[in-house]
TrEMBL record:
<dbReference type="Pfam" id="PF00697">
    <property type="entry name" value="PRAI"/>
</dbReference>
<dbReference type="InterPro" id="IPR044643">
    <property type="entry name" value="TrpF_fam"/>
</dbReference>
<feature type="domain" description="N-(5'phosphoribosyl) anthranilate isomerase (PRAI)">
    <location>
        <begin position="10"/>
        <end position="203"/>
    </location>
</feature>
<keyword id="KW-0822">Tryptophan biosynthesis</keyword>
<dbReference type="InterPro" id="IPR013785">
    <property type="entry name" value="Aldolase_TIM"/>
</dbReference>
<comment type="similarity">
    <text>Belongs to the TrpF family.</text>
</comment>
<keyword id="KW-0028">Amino-acid biosynthesis</keyword>
<keyword id="KW-0413">Isomerase</keyword>
<protein>
    <recommendedName>
        <fullName>N-(5'-phosphoribosyl)anthranilate isomerase</fullName>
        <ecNumber>5.3.1.24</ecNumber>
    </recommendedName>
</protein>
<comment type="pathway">
    <text>Amino-acid biosynthesis; L-tryptophan biosynthesis; L-tryptophan from chorismate: step 3/5.</text>
</comment>
<dbReference type="InterPro" id="IPR001240">
    <property type="entry name" value="PRAI_dom"/>
</dbReference>
<keyword id="KW-0057">Aromatic amino acid biosynthesis</keyword>
<dbReference type="GO" id="GO:0004640">
    <property type="term" value="F:phosphoribosylanthranilate isomerase activity"/>
</dbReference>
<dbReference type="InterPro" id="IPR011060">
    <property type="entry name" value="RibuloseP-bd_barrel"/>
</dbReference>
Length: 217
């Protein structure tokens, strides 16, 4: 269980200024900006730089990539100044660590996960356990079988895949992740967040945290 009973919240796939503003108002811990070529939520650098300018210190700015080339990653870093990188493809440890920025590594939990998949990136600050199969993209809106998560993982992990306001309370209480990551579960359309869903998602995570604190007394 989270020792601090504070489950980190990451809103990913942000594309609109009003959504970023509300996420900051709700005091989420991280905001994800997508640069993966295949994503419907992909931003160009100028749009990302404008959104980044709204995000205050203390909120992590996460730049998400999936098998992007190194020069593309570096251009985003130079222009957008993310505090974290997130890699969703077949990037190896050397590639992920080459940019001098802390990173998260996604682990595909929707396929046949090999035994050492969770330990392949020892320098990742955290893993992101998502519901896509190996080689697939995230943001599917589908969850994976949470019982597949080992009792002990080598890194803190964020739970992703199919989370939404109606199931995140159960997710936090069942899995006890370090953090939760949501994109399509708080949307009205790809890249367009729904304000009511955003608020409810945060409320449900905090309700789960409050329950964890009460049980720990």
């Amino acid at each position: 269980m989270n020792a601090s009973a504070h489950t980190r919240i990451k809103f990913c796939g942000m594309t609109r200024a009003q959504d970023v503003a509300l996420a900051c108002e709700l005091r989420v811990d991280a905001i994800g900006l997508v640069f993966a070529q295949r994503s419907s939520r992909r931003l160009d650098i100028e749009a990302a730089r404008a959104l980044r300018g709204q995000i205050p210190d203390g909120v992590d700015v996460v730049a998400l990539f999936m098998d992007n080339e190194g020069p593309q990653v570096q251009r985003v870093i130079d222009a957008v100044r993310p505090t974290l990188l997130q890699f969703h493809g077949n990037e190896d440890e050397a590639f992920c660590g080459a940019f001098g920025v802390p990173y998260l590594k996604a682990v595909a939990m929707g396929g046949d996960v090999v035994a050492d998949a969770l330990s392949r990136h020892p320098d990742a600050v955290a893993l992101l356990l998502d519901s896509h199969a190996s080689g697939g993209a995230g943001g599917t809106g589908h969850r994976f079988d949470w019982s597949r998560i080992p009792q002990a993982t080598p890194r803190p992990f964020l739970l992703a895949g199919g989370l939404h306001p109606d199931n995140v309370f159960d997710a936090v209480n069942t899995v006890h992740p370090w953090g939760v990551d949501v994109s399509s579960g708080i949307e009205s359309a790809p890249g367009e967040k729904d304000a009511a869903k955003m608020r409810r998602f945060v409320e449900e995570v905090r309700r789960a945290d409050a329950l964890a604190r009460s049980l720990a007394r």
